[in-house]
Amino acid sequence: MTGKTLYPRLEPLLAQIQKPIQYVGGELNSRVKPWDDVAVHWALMYPDAYEVGLPNQGLMILYEVLNERPDALAERTYAVWPDLAALMREHGVPQFTVDGHRAVRDFDLLGVSFATELGYTNLLEALDLAGVPLHAVDRDESSPVVVAGGHAAFNPEPVADFVDCAVLGDGEQVVGDITDVVKAWKAQGRPGGRVELLARLARVEGVYVPRFYAVSYGPDGAIAAVQRTRDDVPARVAKRTVMDLDEWPYPKTPIVPLAESVHERMSVEIFRGCTRGCRFCQAGMITRPVRERTITGIGSMVEQGLKATGYEEVGLLSLSSADHSEIGQLAKELADRYEGTNTSLSLPSTRVDAFNVTLANELSRNGRRSGLTFAPEGGSERIRRVINKTVSKEDLVRTVTTAYANGWQQVKLYFMCGLPTETDEDVLEIADLAVEVIRAGREASGRKDIRCTVSIGGFVPKPHTPFQWAGQASADTIDHRLRVLRQAINADRRVGRSIGLRYHDGKPGVIEGLLSRGDRRVGRVIERVWRDGGKFDGWSEHFSYERWTTAAAEELAPFGVDLDWFTTRERTEHEVLPWDHLDSGLDKEWLWEDWQEALSEEEVADCRWTPCYDCGVCPTMGTEIQIGPTGRSLLPLTVVGR
């Protein structure tokens, strides 16, 4: 019987593992709908541990959107830790959902949201545990349709062998379209089998079905062409864009985890998209145009979410939240509304040029005053011009000093290492900056106990950005620069002891680079790594660089390419890139021009406040920038029946 709960078989295993609470379900605001009451069944997966996956906004939104439909249900599944996976294989318990503990293989669709490419091996592990054939070509009508989504889906070619289709762009509307297609196909008696269903899905805007596109390669190892194999599917697949976010106020009732998770707060996405033009930022490029929620829309989401969850912190999320056209008014009116309730507001990070003390004070007025996070990204002004994130050293020191002078004791600065054209000197300027921040902060605050944490991430070139052509810095280069940076910070212990340095070595970034710009040949590497025991590659204790490099060397050699070919090699202007047939709206010629401007250290303005500079998104996608001010304001909440 499909849809039957597996919990009686699972429960005895939970006493033998660590953190069994993450598998039991029943969280506040989770849902279990009767299986036979609906036509279409979705399993939604975040391919990482429960504690990382549960707070994911994208998955939570789709979960609610689908469960609001009377003809569909959605349940969640996460990556299973190795201790439980071993017991599941031993006792024949397949991959299950945490809501109804139903077998994933019983569902019509398995939607997998990839925020990072390092989750690919977890997808293979889940498919194997579920009893679903790893390769899409081996599946029949009895297997769920595996749908990839998330930012990594803008180049799904490395997992093209394992997914049936990929969704490009916003998911709120497209999951409804997919549900309609599957429902109709089932009601008609499944005509044409799985191939006909996939052909129908391929005609849904924003849905890419890899099996209907053939890739050929040239003698130099590069792609010669990508051609569709059917006339009834699009030659290029365009992304979906949801306009008017106020019409999609999700999640309305966020799920509250039973176990500790990475974000213990209620979050509201205050706008989507970014046009700042940071050249390294895939998220900003692929989510254009900017679409703001109104103050009143945000206010109602905050009100409903707090009632539904009991959280005392609200995260105002976006790629650059302080850029909301009414952020000052929004923060003040939310702080007024929740005065005396211990409800605090937070932003993920703040641009140096968007920060002001008034805003920061409003955000922390009713709750704890946590640290402030700024993301200069590049160590020197020169490299910040290259990446189009221009802020002067003086501006940064002045901003951080102002924060210290107004009572903040902890500031975090985020940078990247390995950016195009970067030298050791660019990275060493991070140390100079941190030292100056501490000295100026001590002077402004009159205190010695202030702290500055410098967090460094290795740069990975991403598709659909001006840096998609760039050669990636090698792991040795990254590690060398981090080593000299640490030495420079520690050179003066009187200041260095107030500076924390957090970083990862360069090796995981190289593998992320392989997966982010890889083509279908990389799928063999992913499968080999998984078969050799690779999983949870985003966790340092599980990641094995040697396992990846060995697999890459052996699996790519027959094609005449290698790991360096996919990572450290700089691409040429007219090379066919693996994702060229997937349309994010960005004009490839414009991206190339921006890459050349980066090499010339030229800046590009934000088109929210300046004339259009022809990136291509709005005319290509039929969209437009949506920003305030709206002239609206939040009314005080009234207590009924008092």
Automatic annotation (TrEMBL):
Transmembrane segments: none annotated. SUPFAM superfamilies: Radical SAM enzymes (SSF102114). This is TIGR03960 family B12-binding radical SAM protein. InterPro entries: CHP03960_rSAM, Elp3/MiaA/NifB-like_rSAM, Radical_SAM_N2, rSAM, rSAM_horseshoe, rSAM_sf. Residues 260-502 form the Radical SAM core domain. SMART domains: Elp3.
